[in-house]
Amino acid sequence: MGLFRWSQSRSLWMMHFCTGCGAVEMPPTMTSRYDMERFGIIPMATPRQADILLITGYLTVKTLKRVVRSYEQMADPKYVIGFGSCTINGGMYWDSYNTVKQLDLYIPVDLYIAGCMPRPDSIIDAFVKLREMIAKGEANGWKRYRENLEWYRTNQAKVFNVEKWSAIEP
Amino acid sequence: MVSPILAIVIPLAIAFLMPFFSALSRKSVKWVFLAVIAFNFYAAIMTFLRVLSGPILVVTAGIKPPFAINLLIGPLGGLLFLLFEGVAFLYAIFLLKAEIKEPVHRFFMLFLLNVAGATGMILTGDLFNLFVFLEITGISAYGLVGFKRDKKGLEGGVKYLILGSVGSTLFLLGVALLYSQVGTLNMADIAGRIWMLKKPTLYAAFIMFLVGLGVEAELFPMNAWVPDAYEGAHDTVTAILSTVLSKAGLYALIRVVFTVLSPQKAFLDLLLWAGLITLLLAELSALRQKNVKRMIAYSSVGQMGLVVFAFGMGSLFALQAALFQAVNHVLSKGVLFLSLAIMGKKREGLELENLRGIGRELPVTGLLFSIGALSLLGLPFLSGFWSKISLLLSTADLKLWVPLGLVLLASIIEAFYYLRTIGVFYTGTDFRFRETAFIRLLPVLVLVFVILYLGFRPGVLAPYLKGAAKELVDRSGYIGWVIGGLKP
Amino acid sequence: MVILEFFLVLIGITALGLLYGGIARKWSARIQRRYGPPFYQNFLDVFKLLGKKNTKSHGVMFALGPVIAFTGIILSLFFLPLGNSRPLLSFEGDIFVLFYLLVIAPLGMALGAGEAANPNATIGIARGLTLMLGYELIFFLSAIAVMVKFNTASLWKIVEIQGTFPKWNLFPFFLSAFAGLIALQGMMGEKPFDLIVAPHEIASGPMVEYNGKYLGLLQLYHAIAIVVETGLFVNVFLGGGSILTFILKTFFVFMLAVTIDNIMPRFRIGQAVKFYWKYPLIISLLGILVVFIWR
Amino acid sequence: MNGEMEILEKVKKAFGEKAETAPKWERQSEIKVPLELLHPLLGYLRAQGFGHLAMISCVDWIEEGEFELVYHLWSYEKRLHLLVKTRIDRENPTVETIIPIFRIAETYERELHEMFGIDFPGNPNLTPLFLEDWDGSPPMRRDFDTRKYVEEKYGMIDLTKELWKREEPVLEGENGED
Amino acid sequence: MTFWVIASYFLGGIVAYVLARPSRKIGAFVALLFSIYPLYALIPALDGGFYLRFTVIPYYLHLSFRLTLLGWFFALIAATLYSLSLFSAYSEKRDSFFLLSSMFSAGGLMGVFLAADYLTLFIFFEIMAFFSAFTFIREHRRSALKYIIYSLVGSYAFLAALLVINRSTGSLEITPLSGFGGSVPAVMSLFILAFWVKSAVMPFHPWAPSAYADSPHSYTPFFSGALSKSGVYGLVLAFFYIFAGFFKSHHAFGYIFAWIGALTALFAGIYALLQDDAKKLLAYSSISQLGYVAFGLGLGTSLSITGSLFVALGHAVFESLLFFVIAAVYIRTGTTMLTEMGGLIKKMPISFIALLFGIIAAAGIPPTVGFPGKWMLYEAVLEKGYPLLAGAIFAASITAFLYCYRLIYSIFLGPLKKEFRDVREAPFPALVPLLLLLIPLLFFGLFPGYVVDVTDSILREFGYLGVPHTPAKLLSGLGTFNGLAVGITMGAAFVIAFLVHAVFSRSRKVSELNNYTAGEVAEGVSMHYVADFYKFIERELHGFLKLRVEALFNWIAEGIGGLGEVLRRVYAGDIQAYLVYLILFLGFLFTLYRGVLRW
Fold first, then answer.
1. Burial, D44: exposed, middle or buried (Cβ in 10 Å; 0-12, 13-18, 19+)?
2. Using an 8 Å Cβ cutoff, are B160 and B225 in contact?
3. What's the CATH code of the domain at A150?
4. How far is A45 from chain C (nearest CA, A)?
């Protein structure tokens, strides 16, 4: 299985969910200046074809519901990169009534990039770090999600004020 | 052996006795009428069976022709005689159930006069006698058309009266012209001496006869009265008018042109084109006609034009086709008008709109109407088809390409409005099944049976058609019968 | 033996296609002054996709779509001469058969994407089919000029007639070849005609619902399709020669298409079809006129 | 300045002393008016050329137990900014919708309904705008304690404690030292 | 024997009419039995080709029948299609009048194929035209009338031609016209007009879309699949048997007819793209396929004639298959509008498979019956060296591919509508025609040789040499096509692809909503992109699409109607007017005979 593991680490297709202000950092990463394609990472339009889900900013409850649905639409193995301090602990919206504080409670995050909107070089650094984690087989957020789905579902239900919540499948 | 003369005399006599019968009992009038027509029908059958072996000469008042009035019945006369009496008999049955406005006995008197006159026209051998019978049928027809005394009936009746009388006076002028030149009134005699007339008088006589009889035979300029009269008249009257009377007028015209005035090229061409124009004009004006009865009236005028066109061609095969077409026209029009009468009872007006879906309400009548119409259009394996095909074959034989095209165009137009009508009859959802009394359906059934029978075995009529055509074509034979050694 | 030879050809062509894809991405990156992925990146992509688990399917037809697409393109390999080596079934079908076989693959993909009931996919398919109305006709007209001149419909015979370099069809039929090139651009879905997969507008068109191994299969199909389509053009216009020259020629034609792809913006679908019915149509008709005058 | 005075005079004349008018800033003045005069005034002003309703804001005077609704009107011809202020009760705040006068008001009223809990009878679309699945009391009211809500809903992260521990060990090497 | 082939239809029609009154199922079943007999009688009849002449009606005219190979070829197609359509009619529970008129129309068609002289041909042509219109005159009077008038114009033109031929050659037998007096082109154009109209080739096609769309769904396969073949039969007879001399000597006529055929195929294909009603779409597709046939006949080489006969057979197979599927879908969903359907693959899988094979054949993809015919046409046009014609035909076959996909996508793929939640697969009798038609669809695709055997012997009768072929392989001067080889390789390729697919991890079926909106579909919003599917093409071709030949015919009809309106006034005058007419006529007669009367 080494070949698959190696190819999974070398060819990553990324779908960035532009929620907050982080999205503006993506174009320089993709284009000539920093060129993430060198690492085999191309932006993909649909969750179906994506491997990485890049959450690029703070998450209101409303957007969180859509994020979870796109996450469920992706095929395994899938990785989530939390982008900027808002996903880590709510960042400057730490006491806002509307934003989600800790993304990790709702979808498994493999990698966080600190910084109140990190620069492209730290994004590239994150991608390189992710490649190593995949190669070593550490990036298994999707396994964690599948094993304790119940825990995630209760968290999600709590924040969506509904007693039982399923993403897409009725 | 029943002498055909009785078929004329008895109806005339009974007609005048009608008031007494109605005095006896109101209901008996219908049955008496039926009895007389039945007798006529019987006489017609007997003569029809004998006529093929040889023509029958009946002399009145004992004196030998050409001095006395004589009746001469060749295959042509026999065929038409049977046709008229048969159709009249069916109408009589149909009338048993029809409601007729008071006074009923006068209606039946006029009807009897009409049938007697028509029979007389086709049997007589004397020109003046022809005029007399033309007058009898004419006057009784004017009465019948206006019998309902409603606005449409009166209007139609008056128009028919005026045009009819103008026509018959012109015919009388023609007869007088001939009499002054030839000195005799017997058709065969005139035919024998026609060479004596100079060309102008011959043509003048022809013009008089053409216009005179054209009114009755519904040719183009003279047939303007037809739609109003047919629409206004009581439905059985329309039926008898369109089938019996128009054929009688046609017979008179043909007899005069072919036998009396010798069928010259100029005459026949005029007949041909007059017929063609009548056909086209009638079909075209029927296209946008919303009232079904008036539409069928136009179609019957058109068909008459077609028959005259066929006679106008003059060849032996053409005449046979024309006669066969005339027979089919009688059958189809009978079916159409009678079934329309039955439908008329179920709905108030006869407009196309309020007859929508009648075919589903009266399935049998609808089916019969469709068969009658389709036979007229020339659906194969119906009698109309064979006559139309033979007519077109004869047109092609005479290399008349333009008329062929026009006839085909006319039949396409005819197909359009008949199928539109049938389509309208059958649209709409299923209504309650309310079929009419069987006695009223019987005549229509008989006519449709004849259409189907002729459709599958047209050969039955072939000998009669051949004989009639031969009778028209060789005038000397006709003259020979009357003047020569034929014993009465 | 024939089966072994066929498998060799199949794997070889697939590898070739993926290689072309990798080099094309490297070449486009270079044009945009960036390094771009390693040339074997396409291989990695395919392996990653085939290794995906928990792929989602919308039904039998959805799963069969890529399979039929793959079948169609494998089938056309049977009839495509590679350089001077006769194709396996050259006696069994000629260029018209090949034209109709090339239609099976888009049909398969369209049926699969249709089952996915995603409006993006259907709009992509509608665009693809409409575009086909444009380029197929032009390619046919340019090929028919050659066929009428040599009075043959067998692709193998056309290749034989051309022989070596100076006798290519490119020079006598220059107009038809030029029109053929424009049609090829549309056939391969390169910009300005990449309306089918327009990522910005309809999120990669018909492939929007495909994930995991289905997408891998479609990548393999796309790879072979590149070689087959350019191969068809090469056989008709750039003549025979050994397999190596065939590879070089197809590579060069493909690189030409990729360069144009990097420069041109994208047509609207209405414009694209109208464009095809204007200029390339006139050029190919002129090409045919030339054949008539020349004959 | 003359434009402003002229319009305020007109309003004074039209609505009597109930409408207190006072110029506030250069090109901006305010009109305080009781609730029942609100709609006629807005209609009148619209007729006077104040066609643009820029915003409806609400001030929570919790001490007086009232909400103050401020309708910001702007006129393109006069280039004037008018603030129409009115006071409504805080317990059950209901104001008839002004959609018949200004169609745009639907979204503003929807937001006020969501954030302040003001009811606008006649507004067809008072569904939640930003706060989907919201269960708390309207958040913009001053008596809403944000900190307590966040603590109970999302679980407050006490930033003062040391770095939030993750299960896996933090890798030495690359980014360990900075 | 031939008599009973035709008579059993008419007899069956009457018996079915009577029996269907009490219960429609028995009526349909009996009709089916009566339609099986001709099929049973026709198949072995190939060797006993004989001449049967009998005078049904002893009146100067007689009906004579003869079993020719060409007649047998088409009669067999028509008989099979008709009995299949009765299967579908059985499940549609059609009423008695429909059974009568459809049986009579089938009888008429048989009569056309087996007629030995022009008059019999004309008679049965009329019967077929009238009764096929009666099947749907009740529900859709307007389109039925339009159909009857077009076919009447055609058949009366044929009648005129028949009369002219009879006039000059004296006999009505269908024999090649050698010494012929009158102007042949005029007679020939009149002669083929009837068949031109019947095979719905442009410019005489306006009746076809409304007629095919409105005729009863179970009857349309026979209507479009077999009735149009009477037109093809007539054209083949006219071009290669009766007027063969003229046709061979005047190439221009053939070339023009080939262009008309090609343009018909192309334009009908484009119109088919833009229809929203499945029946109308298939109607235009049927016209397009007949355009191919006309193209083949126009070229006139032995390869092109075999090609067009093969396309005629193919059209009969896959077009009727498509119509049968629409009929089956209609039974369950009650609509044929593409915009109202969607996602039926989940509920009606068998119909889906049948439609899939149908559209593969309609698009002409190799292993099916649609391809060999087209292939031969391409070879023929290439042999003749007309590249533009080849281009037009190829463009037409691309449009075929386009509207085929639209058909299968709008009905079966895409999201399932709520009201079709509980739809079951079509009833078994409606499925029988689908499954039975799949057999010839694949068999003649893999082994085209067997069909070419028959067409070769037909061509030999007309003095053409056939197409060199083996049971599976067709050879033409320029290229080869081996149906079996292509079929086998396709199977092998499919196995390889399936293995590649199956090797990797299994996939999990996902709910239907889990795509574009991830499960959040708002009420009443349909994600089915089907209305205006090819709007881009329509926008480009807008100017061209507006001009329709139908407008010309409607204008003529209006003209005649207007004339009728004017003339009607003649009869609506009052009595004075009538007298004026009389006097004018007298005056006219006197002036006419001025010369004779000398005044």
1. middle
2. yes
3. 3.40.50.12280
4. 5
Q: Choose, out of A30, A37, A168, the residue to mutate when testing the contact with C (most C CBs < 10 Å).
A: A37
**Quick one: pLDDT at residue E60?**
58
Q: What letter represents residue C235's amino acid?
A: N
φ/ψ of B70, rounded to 5, equals -125, 155
**Residues in contact with B324: Cβ distance below 8 Å, sequence separation at least 6, in sequence order:** B383, B386, B387, B390, B458, B461, B465
Q: Are E374 and E484 within one domain?
A: yes
Interface of A with C in 9-38 (CB under 8 A): 10-11, 13, 31-32, 35, 37-38
CA distance A73 to chain C (A): 8
Cβ-contact E221, E323 below 8 angstroms: yes
For Cα atoms E295, E299, E302, give the angle at the middle one, nearest 5 degrees: 115
Helix, strand, or coil (residue C183): helix
CB contact under 8 A, A161 and D135: yes
Q: Residue E514 and residue A66: Cβ atoms within 8 Å?
A: no
Residue E326 lies in a domain: yes
Domains in chain D (CATH in brackets) are: 2-134 (3.30.460.80)
Report the number of distinct structural domains present in chain A. 1
CA distance E514 to chain A (A): 7
> Who contacts D57 (Cβ-Cβ below 8 Å, separation ≥6)?
D69, D70, D72
- Put simply, whether B463 touches E (Cβ < 8 Å) is no
- Specify the residue for token string 């929807």: D110
CB B283 within 8 A of CB B298: yes
Q: Does residue D19 surpass a pLDDT of 80?
A: no
Task: Give which of D127, D129, D131, D132 to mutate to test A binding, by max A Cβ within 10 Å.
Answer: D132
The boundaries of the domain holding residue E578 are: 561-597
ipTM field:
0.86
Please give the Cα distance from E188 to E199 (Å, whole number): 16
Give B 243-302 residues with CB within 8 A of chain E: 266, 270, 281, 284-289, 298
Q: Which of E48, E38, E13, E39 is nearest to E27 (CA)?
A: E13
Centroid of chain to Cα B3: 23
Taking the CA atoms of B190, B195, B200 and B203 in sequence, report the sign of the dihedral they define: positive
Pair E362, E370: CB distance under 8 Å: yes
- Are B423 and E124 an interchain contact pair (Cβ–Cβ within 8 Å)? no
Window E:396-415, CB contacts with C under 8 Å: 398-399, 401-402, 405, 408-409, 413-415
Does the distance separating the beta carbons of A4 and C53 come in below 8 Å?
A: no
Contacts of E520 in chain A (CB under 8 A): 69
Instruction: Tell me phi and psi for residue B77, to 5 degrees.
Output: -60, -45
> Is residue E10 included in any domain, yes or no?
yes
Residues C114-156 pLDDT 10s: 888 888 899 999 999 999 988 999 999 999 998 888 888 888 8
Model confidence band, residue D173 (pLDDT cutoffs 50, 70, 90): very low
**Interface touch E578/B390, C-beta < 8 Å:** no
- Mean of per-residue pLDDT scores for chain B: 85
Banded model confidence at residue C285, pLDDT cuts 50, 70, 90: very high
Contact in structure between B414 and B283 (CB atoms under 8 Å): yes
Q: What is the average per-residue pLDDT within B96-110?
A: 80
Q: Is residue B394 part of a domain?
A: yes
